[in-house]
Amino acid sequence: MPELNPRDNEFLNSLREQIIQNLSDEKFGVSELANTIGMSRSNLLRKVQKLTGLSISKYIRNIRLEEAMEMLKHGTSTVSEIAYEVGFGSISYFVKCFREQYGYPPGETGQQAQKKKEEAAKPAGKPLERKRAVKLIYSIPTVIITLVLLWMVTLGPLKKAESLPEKSIAVLPFKNDSNDSTNVYIINGLMEAILNNLQQIEDLKVVSRTSVEKYRQSKLTIPEIARELNVSYVIEGSGQKIGDQILLNVQLIKGEEDDHLWAEQYNRQVKDIFTIQQEVAKNIANEIEAIVKPEEEERINEIPTHNLVAYDYYLKGMDSFNRESMEGLEAGINWMQKAIEEDEEFANAHAALGMAYYFLDMFTAGADYIKEMGYHADKALLYNPQLASALTAKALYFVRIKSIKEAETYLLKALEYNPNSAMVLNQLSDIYATHFSNPKKYLEYALRGVDIDIASNDSTAASFIYLHLSNAFIQSGFVEESIRAINKSLAYKPDNLFSEYVKAYVLFARDRDLDATKETLIATLARDTNRFDIMQEIGNTCYYLRDYDCAYKYFSKFVTIRERLQLDAYPNKNAEISLVYGKMGYKEDAAKFMKAYKAYVDASSNSIYYNLNMAMYYAHMGEEEKALEHLRLFSEEDEFQYWIILFTPMDPMLDNIKDNPEFTEIFAKLEQNFWANHRQIRSTLEMKNLLNDL
Question: Is the pTM of this model over 0.90?
Answer without folding.
Answer: no
